[in-house]
Design goal:
single chain, alpha/beta, 8-stranded parallel beta sheet
Length: about 210
């Protein structure tokens, strides 16, 4: 099995978790033995989030998607953004806030759970009023945490350990863009995403009655 950042391998990761006897849980109570918390920080692309969400729903997995209200890359308040968060819920996923410090204003679109975007160590695991901070004590512990940040697993791809039931529980952070768009490096993946984005933007311009002739 090659540990590529592809949707095929992401599906294999989910299957490995199943084979290891894990269940998919959320951030509404501290994880117990046997829980896998699928966490997605949606930094760049709602389209990528929806693709991953459909795949998960297809194999009966439920995740928590952390969406931004202050992204420079997408607008959650647009019709497209509203439709995306509704679709995530329809597929059986949870929606939390991917917040930019210090603003953790939760409204009815979000479950009471916050993941800071690019947090500094000073506040990374500090409690957040009225919400769970995904990095707070009880939800985060380095041995039971894996992240694909910048398309690199710091402690290796967890599929083998999942299959073997090696984690007591696991918080698994993945960024949908890295798995949906092709590319062997972060730079290549980002360029592939921008190519797809250009096509999407052209469609949006046409829909907005812009003459593209
Ligand atoms: Zn792997
Ligand atoms: Zn982020």
């Amino acid at each position: 099995m090659s540990c590529a950042f592809t949707l095929d391998h992401y599906r294999e990761l989910l299957e490995a978790a199943r084979a290891g006897g894990y269940r998919f849980a959320h951030f509404d109570e501290p994880p117990r033995r046997g829980d896998v918390l699928l966490r997605h920080d949606v930094d760049l692309s709602l389209d990528a989030a929806l693709r991953m969400a459909e795949l998960e729903a297809g194999v009966g997995a439920s995740a928590t998607y952390f969406l931004m209200t202050e992204s420079v890359f997408y607008n959650l308040a647009s019709t497209e953004g509203t439709a995306a968060s509704q679709r995530l819920r329809e597929l059986g996923h949870r929606v939390g806030l991917h917040a930019v410090y210090p603003n953790a204003a939760l409204d009815e679109r979000f479950d009471p759970v916050v993941a800071w975007h690019n947090p500094d160590p000073e506040y990374m695991s500090a409690p957040v009023r009225g919400a769970v901070n995904v990095m707070q004590e009880g939800y985060f512990d380095p041995p039971t945490y894996r992240s694909d940040s910048n398309q690199r697993w710091r402690s290796g791809c967890p599929h083998e350990e999942l299959r073997a039931g090696g984690f007591p529980w696991l918080q698994l952070l993945t960024h949908p863009e890295l798995w949906v768009y092709p590319g062997a490096t972060m730079g290549a993946t980002m360029r592939a995403m921008l190519d797809a984005e250009r096509e999407r933007r052209l469609g949006q311009l046409a829909e907005d009655r812009i003459d593209l002739s």
